[in-house]
Amino acid sequence: MASLPLPRPVLTRAGRSALTMQHMTVPHAPVPQVPDLADAPRPTRAFGVYIGRFEPPHQAHLLVMLEALRSVQTLIVVIGSARAARNTKNPFTAQERQDMIRAMLEEAGADIGSADTGSAETGRLRFVQVRDHLYDESRWLAEVRGGVQAHVGGSRDVALVGHIKDESSYYLRSFPDWEFLPTHVVSPLSATDVRRAYFAGRLGDVRGMVPPAVHIFLERFRQTPEYAELRADSEALSEARAAWEAAPQPPTFLSADALVSCAGHVLLVRRADRPGRGLLALPGDLLGPKETLLGRAARVVRQLTGLGTALDLSAALRAEATFDHPDRSQRGRVVSHAFHFVLDRETPPELAPGRGESGGGELGEGELGEARWLALSEVLAHPELLFEDHHEIIGRFLSGVTDQS
Ligand code: NAD
After folding, report:
1. Which regions of the chain carry the CATH code 3.40.50.620?
2. pLDDT (tens digit, 9 = 90+) per residue, 6-24?
3. What pLDDT, in 10s, does the model give residues 94-131?
4. How many CB atoms lie within 10 A of CB 221?
5. Where's the Nudix hydrolase domain (predicted)?
6. Exposed site from 14, 88, 110, 346, fewest CB < 10 Å?
7. Which residues line ligand 1 (CB under 6 A)?
8. How far is the CA of 191 from the centre of ligand 1 (A)?
9. Residues spanned by CATH 3.90.79.10 within the chain?
10. CATH 3.40.50.620 fits 10-225, yes or no
11. In angstroms, rounded to a whole number, what is the distance separating the alpha carbons of residues 296 and 225?
């Protein structure tokens, strides 16, 4: 597992495995004004599509949706970054975000029908949940289109709603056949500021940035063990970030990771460090000053399997690739170079004593072994249990079976 080399004097143990390089203290964002919608045009499009992460939905999101519901008959909200493990950037499940959005629109008196009458198939408010595919943009586009298509049928009367706020909004230009309807709601409010206040425990600030229904959800979520984990992750990341503030330039880290597959199983470790404690991850570590990437990955695998040099990894190496999406890690700029090793055996080898458990197990059993072999089909079916982009890395190497996910 990658544990990042941080300056020791200023770090706690938790902070030692975490870093991000950017730290901006954004002042409390002003709440946007409700635009005067009295003279807004009546619905002129059959369908409107509004894509976002909504982590969490805030006042500006609400106003964009209220405005959109005045110009489209049916609003399809595409909730991105679905089915991923919770982290401080994406703390809520897609279903939780969907429930918050419906609740805030009902609370605002939007004409969408109740949860009973405004059903998923017939109401004015529909939802599509889409996973990220950081290394396969065409797959993401196809999944957005496919999800929208399921609601619009053969209609071509589809508009795309949104606001091109910065380069991260590039995807709004990727649907040229849907007329773009830019929102008139433009404010400096951002979900990043909401999350920063939320994980700092500043619920009073959060109250001013989100609709009451969302605030109620956030208050309840604050009582959960998941919030406690995320808040601890947030603190660890902040500590690590502070440790690098004096660096002359933001650091870029290189990690050597290994996907080891054998007889329908893959070797995974359960993270012991923050962020993402308890999530499943590929074995790997940061590159040391005197190591090659392959040498680093092989050393980790030999340690975990306990097979030492008896394991001929050079014969087992099938493929390698670099995973460098800028948003792949919250710890900062961490580029992964990953190797796929295939062990030609009828059963996966026993793991070294004290290193983990051997034998194929089912996910979700709560095992806390450091490393274990897990059925590939189970791993592919549970992206929400994997750290960072490791599910995508596995899928990339084993592309023949990724469609099971
Ligand atoms: P977001 O929640 O930040 O924003 C959603 C929409 O609201 C955007 O149109 C944004 O411009 C608008 N908005 C936000 N704040 C506003 C404000 N203050 N005033 C007015 N409008 C405001 O979501 P996002 O990050 O843009 O969501 C995109 C989603 O699509 C993410 O989940 C992302 O991961 C996903 N995505 C995935 C891929 C891929 O996997 N290949 C590619 C592109 C996008």
Report:
1. 10-225
2. 222 222 233 223 222 222 2
3. 999 999 999 999 999 999 975 555 456 669 999 999 99
4. 16
5. 251-398
6. 346
7. 51-54, 60-61, 64, 80-81, 132-134, 137, 140, 162-163, 165, 168-169, 171, 183, 185-187, 189-191
8. 10
9. 252-398
10. yes
11. 35
